[in-house]
Backbone:
């Protein structure tokens, strides 16, 4: 089936969380994660946007517009057929489809083969594709990342897995110098179509070193793209898009989101790497978030709606580059911005996003951009301390109330 | 131990033992070039490496050598000799010209010259085909030239011109050529070795997964300093583990800027580290292009046959400083003189003439031809234009959509200013 590229919001996507069962999370957070639904209303192409926009991607298929707030009953009815799966299965499905489609796609990483991946993303793939296509590497991140880059330069399309994103710190040399810069320093002669992926973020008492958020460290590297998936739908879509992209893409997954369940379309689809996702349109305030914090935000949104606020929630998805169009349109509408991220306060994605918004949309702001990030603290082991290092829904509610005064 | 190498006519009329570096009396001399055969099995036999070696296919190589040249006791034919000579002269002249141009302000930054080490580059690369890959370090001009990148393209790159092999974007330390499979040119030591391992992995993948007829080998060049770096060991492990068609060539010139190899390495004999990972480790006189070539032949054959990697340590020397900015005051004058006397070009010239493979006049013609080539390369580079502003944002991404979507909804790369190099990205 031909792939359909879905622009903007999750057109045709099932609601993110209508069947979400918090107990199924690997490590449920202490706060009650939502039975909250995301809206399925999409940005319809023609509405309010400049007709001269030439990009077919953004206006391609007829987007399915539906009601502003999805109810449980509506979910399966509107999407029709589809199949339900967990986020790690969605990643696996995307990966498997791409490996079927192109024999140059291969996987390398620790325990990706026989073990099936420490988060089961590559489960069964070694049996199907063989030990060379799903390569179990020794524990040498720098070298196997470099090996993936060398393979990419010479014609393959490796998907390099970091067992935990934090381990990729050991591969920083290769990621920065070779992955990011080599296309440029070779004068465009060599492309590096790698995907570097792995779970990161604060888990459940995994300790400081396993709870790192590398997006802030990598964001300055020129020549790479960074995306963060947050739902099974966009996980599969982004995985496929990243593999097909000629650019090196770093795909950030989150340890706590692997067991999210969602119904995704049966037919093939790809998500756009550079676009943000409208999760819940609103009027009062723009909340920008990504990855796990999306769920904290949606939980807070529930409370806020009850209190009479109408937040617009955007999952920025593309951490580098930022989708300033979607973000900008939202800022122009609501005039207030709150960024909620799991990244560290200093030099994080939020910091860059704040700068970008101030630079581009300063005139549209009624209040300073507020950014809620994790504390600049190594993630403690103790559960209570860990809870306080990341942003919790109550803080989000308070921040919105403050901004909307 | 009789090997293919002691059977040859070495240029200096003696075994490599006499040509070894002056070691402090407490250290043992490196053995004569011995080719420790591949241990086909897994590391169980690690303890018996020495014995495994003697059962190695070294004998088979002797037979191959004999088959190829049944009646000719010489190592090369005239044609081969002239090719080698020309390549080394090209390397030397080019590097000398680089020095001149640098001091005249035509090129800037860090420029690392290869004078004295030509035998290694020529010895290995002239055995490779166009589809074989070479990975180098910052001392990469001559590797690029040997691999086939034109002198014009390299010189232009050094001058930072648009006609350079990397459009002026790479510079001295980043010589790349897709056409000739020169995979760089890396500024940090050791970071090219994993890339080379990846290229070798592709070769194996093409053969075993894509079922293509591919026996491309990759040669990775790096120095003695790199051999203390983790990436080196990680790649030795993976290459041996996956039996990748790669040759690790250590250009041991004894000095890492001002750090003597002996002061920085617990066991300075680098070739020994090969067997520790399950691959043969060979030590060869890197000032002797014919010896290097013989070792290279076997290593390449091994790799092409799918028998895995080889670690070759070439004892060599750089006649100039680490870079053109290095005053080179630490190295002993006597050491420099000793190696200058073993200049690989002089040695090959002597060999060719003494063995009646070429006449003085022919060699002079080659030298003159190369001089003209290098001069022409400089003229070409001088005349070439500098990159325009429009080039600034190109090549950052293979797919420039990676710069993202701007506030106006268009991809940044569609902004007309993008092609002018002035777009906000």
Residues:
């Amino acid at each position: 089936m031909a792939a359909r590229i879905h622009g903007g919001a999750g057109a045709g996507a099932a609601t993110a969380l209508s069947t979400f069962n918090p107990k199924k999370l690997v490590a449920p957070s202490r706060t009650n994660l939502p039975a909250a639904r995301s809206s399925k209303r999409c940005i319809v192409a023609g509405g309010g946007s400049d007709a001269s926009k030439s990009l077919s991607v953004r206006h391609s298929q007829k987007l399915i517009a539906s009601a502003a707030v999805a109810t449980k009953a509506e979910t399966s009815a509107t999407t029709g057929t589809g199949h339900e799966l967990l986020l790690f299965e969605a990643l696996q499905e995307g990966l498997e489809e791409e490996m079927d489609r192109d024999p140059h796609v291969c996987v390398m990483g620790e325990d990706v083969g026989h073990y099936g991946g420490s988060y089961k993303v590559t489960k069964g793939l070694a049996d199907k594709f063989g030990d060379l296509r799903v390569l179990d590497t020794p524990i040498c991140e720098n070298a196997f990342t470099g090996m993936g880059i060398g393979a990419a330069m010479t014609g393959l399309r490796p998907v390099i897995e970091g067992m935990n994103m934090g381990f990729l710190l050991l591969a920083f040399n290769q990621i920065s110098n070779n992955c990011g810069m080599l296309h440029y320093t070779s004068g465009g002669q060599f492309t590096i179509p790698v995907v570097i992926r792995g779970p990161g973020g604060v888990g459940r008492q995994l300790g400081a070193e396993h709870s790192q958020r590398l997006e802030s460290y990598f964001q300055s590297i020129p020549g790479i793209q960074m995306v963060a998936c947050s739902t099974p739908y966009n996980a599969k879509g982004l995985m496929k898009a990243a593999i097909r992209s000629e650019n090196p893409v770093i795909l950030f997954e989150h340890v706590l989101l692997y067991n999210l369940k969602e119904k995704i379309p049966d037919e093939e689809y790809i998500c756009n790497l550079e676009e943000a996702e409208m999760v819940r349109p609103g009027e009062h305030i723009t909340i920008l978030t990504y990855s796990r914090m999306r769920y904290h935000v949606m939980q807070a949104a529930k409370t806020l709606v009850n209190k009479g606020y109408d937040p617009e929630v955007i999952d920025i998805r593309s951490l580098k580059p930022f989708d300033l169009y979607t973000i900008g349109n939202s800022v122009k509408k609501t005039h207030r911005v709150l960024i909620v991220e799991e990244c560290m306060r200093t030099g994080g994605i939020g910091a860059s996003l704040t700068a970008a918004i101030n630079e581009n949309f300063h005139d549209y702001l009624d209040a300073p951009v507020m950014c809620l990030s994790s504390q600049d603290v190594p993630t403690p082991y103790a559960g209570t301390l860990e809870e306080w290092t990341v942003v919790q829904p109550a803080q989000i509610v308070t921040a919105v109330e403050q901004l909307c005064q | 131990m009789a090997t293919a190498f002691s059977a040859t006519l070495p240029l200096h009329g003696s075994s490599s033992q006499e040509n070894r570096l002056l070691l402090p009396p407490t250290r043992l001399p490196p053995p004569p070039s011995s080719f420790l055969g591949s241990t086909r099995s897994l590391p169980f036999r690690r303890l018996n490496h020495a014995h495994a070696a003697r059962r190695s296919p070294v004998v088979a190589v002797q037979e191959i050598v004999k088959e190829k040249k049944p009646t000719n006791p010489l190592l090369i034919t005239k044609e081969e000799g002239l090719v080698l000579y020309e390549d080394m002269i090209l390397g030397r002249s080019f590097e000398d010209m680089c020095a001149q141009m640098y001091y005249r302000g035509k090129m800037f930054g860090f420029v690392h010259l290869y004078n004295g080490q030509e035998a290694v580059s020529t010895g290995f690369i002239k055995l490779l085909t166009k589809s074989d890959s070479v990975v180098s370090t910052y001392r990469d001009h001559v590797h690029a030239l040997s691999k086939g990148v034109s002198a014009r393209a390299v010189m232009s790159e050094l001058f930072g011109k648009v006609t350079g092999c990397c459009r002026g974007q790479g510079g001295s330390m980043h010589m790349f050529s897709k056409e000739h499979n020169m995979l760089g040119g890396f500024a940090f030591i050791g970071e090219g070795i994993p890339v080379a391992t990846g290229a070798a992995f592709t070769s194996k993948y093409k053969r075993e997964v894509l079922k293509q007829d591919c026996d491309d080998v990759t040669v990775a060049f790096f120095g003695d300093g790199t051999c203390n770096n983790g990436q080196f060991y990680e790649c030795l492990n993976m290459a041996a583990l996956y039996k990748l068609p790669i040759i690790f060539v250590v250009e041991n010139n004894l000095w890492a800027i001002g750090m003597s190899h002996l002061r920085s390495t617990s066991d300075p004999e680098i070739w020994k580290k090969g067997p520790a990972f399950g691959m043969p480790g060979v030590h060869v006189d890197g000032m002797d292009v014919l010896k290097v070539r013989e070792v290279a032949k076997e290593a390449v054959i091994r790799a092409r046959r799918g028998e895995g990697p080889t670690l070759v340590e070439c004892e060599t020397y750089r006649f100039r400083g680490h870079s053109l900015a290095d005053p080179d005051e630490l190295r002993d004058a006597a050491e420099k003189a000793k190696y200058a006397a073993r200049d690989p070009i002089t040695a090959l010239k002597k060999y060719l003439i003494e063995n009646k493979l070429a006449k003085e006049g022919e060699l002079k013609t080659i030298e003159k031809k190369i001089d003209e080539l290098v001069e022409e390369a400089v003229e070409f580079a001088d005349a070439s234009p500098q990159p325009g502003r429009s080039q600034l944002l190109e090549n950052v991404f293979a797919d420039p959509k990676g710069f993202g979507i701007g506030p106006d909804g268009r991809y940044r790369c569609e902004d007309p200013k993008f092609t002018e190099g002035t777009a906000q990205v």
Summary: Confidence is low (pLDDT under 50) at residues 1-69 of chain B. Chain B is about 40% helix and 10% strand.
